[in-house]
Design brief:
By secondary structure, the protein is mainly alpha-helical. 59% of the residues lie in helices and 7% in strands.
Length: 177
């Protein structure tokens, strides 16, 4: 029995559909979902409808991710793990960072920047670090172009450095850290 492990869909039903095409092509019959089904992207309803359809057609196992915890806590009225009008990335760490900054007597903004950078680097550097990367690779495979990790790194690392280094310099100049 072949199994596929899926995680961090974040409402990207297009990426999920691309993954499912590959799963069908490889004749995989067991799906293991590791959470973060909805999140920042625009079509949570389409994503959840697709997941429900998959559950009817495949042997599926589901685990909650931190995004599900945020949504459930938010629905219950909790403000501990949710900030309105912000991404949920690292939301549980916001109070930790605020507490650290208070104890250190510093502005927490550079620490938030560090959290944001760390949370997004995997998606920029690795082919499987973000659902958009998986979608793009699926589209390229449909066009008979195979993307290798080395090819992705040759593009992803310079772009990541081009984004992170100027931001680091900006924060270093602005905050002296």
């Amino acid at each position: 029995m072949k199994a596929a492990v899926l995680s961090d869909i974040h409402g990207n039903h297009i990426a999920l559909e691309t993954c499912m095409e590959e799963i069908h092509r490889r004749d995989i019959n067991k799906l293991i979902f590791l959470g973060d089904y909805v999140g920042e992207l625009a079509y949570p309803q389409k994503t959840m409808a697709l997941i429900k359809e998959l559950k009817r057609n495949y042997e599926c196992y589901f685990v909650w991710g931190n995004k599900e915890d945020y949504w459930i806590d938010y629905k219950k009225g909790s403000k501990m793990t949710w900030k309105d009008n912000n991404s949920t990335t690292g939301m549980l760490l916001y109070p930790v960072i605020a507490g650290m900054a208070t104890q250190l007597g510093i502005d927490p903004t550079p620490l938030y920047f560090g959290l944001l950078s760390g949370a997004t680097l995997g998606g920029n550097i690795t082919p499987i670090g973000a659902s958009a990367n998986i979608t793009g690779i699926g589209i390229l495979r449909k066009e008979a172009y195979e993307v290798k990790n080395a090819d992705f790194f040759k593009i992803g690392i310079p772009f990541t450095l081009a984004a992170v280094i100027p931001a680091y310099i900006y924060f270093w100049v602005l905050y002296g850290v």
